[in-house]
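I hope you will forgive my troubling you with a question about protein structure. The record follows directly beneath this note:
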Amino acid sequence: MTEGTGRVFRGLHPVDWLLAGALTALGVVLMLENVHLGEARAAAAVADGTMVHLTTSHSWAMVPVFAVATVPVLWWRRNILAVTAIVLSTMVAHDLLFGWVTRCGAGLPLVFVLAYLGGVALERRAAVLMLLLSSALTVAVLVVDATTGLEPVVFALPVVLIVFGVGRAVRHRTAMSAELKARTVELRELRDERVALEVAGDRAQLSAQLEGLLQERLVQLTAAAESGKDLDPVAARTLFESIESESRATLDGMREIVGLLRGGDVALAPAPTVAHLDALLARHTQGDSRLTVTGDPRSLSATLELSAYRIVEHLVDVLADQPDSRIGVAVRFDVDALEIRVDGPVDRSADLKAAVARARERATFLGGSLDVKVSRGHARAVALLPMPG
């Protein structure tokens, strides 16, 4: 297809091809009937009242000439008024060239389609002109129609007006829908802007709150640390445990505020500890998961608590969660170490090597160790984490 031809057919929709094709096919069939209609049959039809006039032409030329009136419908989106003017001119030429033949069967559907499309596509003034052209086209179709004559024009014109009115109603409704969508988008943008301003104000307030919290707690902790210079070991230990507890509270408050500042990206809950291992195992809902704690449970440092939890989390997450799975986690508080044992079937799709590496990194950081053995798809891990006396 050349560039010029491509430009002619650019922008045509499949429905345009379907519409123009259907009208052209209908016109070709009707014109072929005119070509093959014999004099005897025409005279009989006039006699019994099914036709009002004998056909005055049987020329094959009426087929392509009528097609000239239907094919331009393809381009109605570009200029419906120009298309209708071409159709009207062609129909008048058809009347003059071939006289009394049957046109209403294809001509009236063509008029109705153009009237509707004009009603949908045009502004008010142009739409009025379109209505006048459609009315003139109706007359051109029926004025020398051998089957109906001009009498049905009194019924056809109201139908054209109704079809045109339906097109105008569709246009109005489409315009209202587009306007509502535009207003909805505008309102959504205004709402988002308002929310963004509110969030910015809240974050500024939270930032000031965070700064005040840090200053207050740092002053308190500094004063507490300085007061422990002359204390005996037992009193000093009690003081430092108090400092640790206050530090945890400070971190929890900071975490909550930072979480709000980041829109919830940071968890608002306190850091997980050994006490949260039950909740961790509860994620495995299909298998039989059990937690056993032995020894002398006691409060641990925040780093040790979090590391113990993460080690168990890394290992448990690669174990299979199946109805026949049994996952065991045992935590033993010894005098100078925390022992953690995890065993269960390994999930075939999990990356056991990466999980073990992360867990071992946690244990090594605290000066501990992690030993993992895998046999026939079953893993057994033992972690030892030293606890300061």
